[in-house]
Amino acid sequence: MSVTRQSIAVAVLMSGAVALAGCGGGSTGGGSTSTVSGSAVELNSGGDCAGRDVIVNRDGAGVVLDGECGTVTIEANGVSANVATSNAVVVNGQDTNVVGGQTGTLTISGRSNSATIDVVESIDVQGNAVTVLGKQAGRISVSGSGNSVTVDDSGAMTVSGNDNFVRAVSLDSLELTGSNNSVDWDSGATTPSVDTGSENRLTPPGA
C-alpha cells in the first residue's frame, strides 16, 4: 500500500514539473523581442522593425525603432518612442511622446500624449490634452478636447471636438462642428465649408 502511495506522489510531482516547464517556455518577460498578435512583434527595447508590425506595451519604455515599420502600436504609459518610418502609429496609452520622420496614419487616443512627426498622410486626434507637431499632413481630424495641433501644410481639416487649438500655415479646407475651438491659418481656404459649432474663434488669411 505504501509503495502505491509513493508511486502516485512521484507521478504528481513529475506532472507538476512538466506543467511548470511548459509555462516557462511561453514567458516573454525580459525578452526584447517576442511575437505577439499574430505577425506583430514586441520591441520594448527598440530594434529593427524589418517591415513588421510592432507593439510597445511596457510602461516607461524608451525605444528607437529603425528600418521600415508596419503599424506601431503603443499600449503602455510614459513611453518615449522614435519611429523613423512607418505605415501607421497608434497611441493608446497616456503621457507618451513619439518622434518620427514619416508615417501613413497617426492615431492618438488617451491623455497627455504628444507626437512630432514631419510628414503624415492622416492625423486623427481622439484623446484629450494631446499635442501634435508636424510639417505636412494630408488630413487632420480632431475629435477630442483640449488638444493642440500645429502643422505647416494641411489638406482637409475636421474639428468636431471642443476647446482645441489648431494652427496651420496652409489649409485647403475646414469643417468645424465643435465648440470653443481656435483655428488659425495663413493661406488656402478663406472660410470653413462647414461651421455648425458655437463660440469658435477663427483667424483665416487676411484677418
Describe this structure in words.
The protein has one helix at residues 2-25; strands at 34-36, 40-42, 47-48, 54-56, 62-74, 80-91, 97-108, 114-125, 131-142, 148-159, 165-176, 182-188, 194-195, 201-203. It is mainly beta. Strands 1, 2, 3, 4, 5, 6, 7, 8, 9, 10, 11, 12, 13 and 14 form a 14-stranded mixed β-sheet that branches.
Short description:
Helix content is 12%, strand content 52%.
Biggest β-sheet: count, sense, barrel? 14 strands, mixed
Q: Helix proportion of residues, in percent? A: 10-25%
Overall shape: elongated
Strand content: over 45%
- Structure summary, number of beta strands: 14
pLDDT < 50 stretches = 1-32
Helix segment tally: 1
The radius of gyration over CA amounts to 24 Å
Which structural class fits the helix and strand makeup? mainly beta
Q: What sequence of helices (H) and strands (E) makes up the elements? A: HEEEEEEEEEEEEEE
Residue-averaged pLDDT: 86
Q: Note the gap between the termini.
A: 98 Å
Keywords: Signal
Pfam family, one: DUF3060
InterPro entries: DUF3060
Biased composition (Polar residues): 179-201
Keywords:
207 residues, mainly beta, 14-stranded mixed β-sheet, 1 helix, elongated, disordered N terminus
What is the secondary structure topology, with strand pairs?
Elements: H1 2-25, E1 34-36, E2 40-42, E3 47-48, E4 54-56, E5 62-74, E6 80-91, E7 97-108, E8 114-125, E9 131-142, E10 148-159, E11 165-176, E12 182-188, E13 194-195, E14 201-203
Parallel strand pairs: 2-4, 3-5, 4-5, 5-6, 6-7, 7-8, 8-9, 9-10, 10-11, 11-12, 11-13, 12-14
Antiparallel strand pairs: 1-2
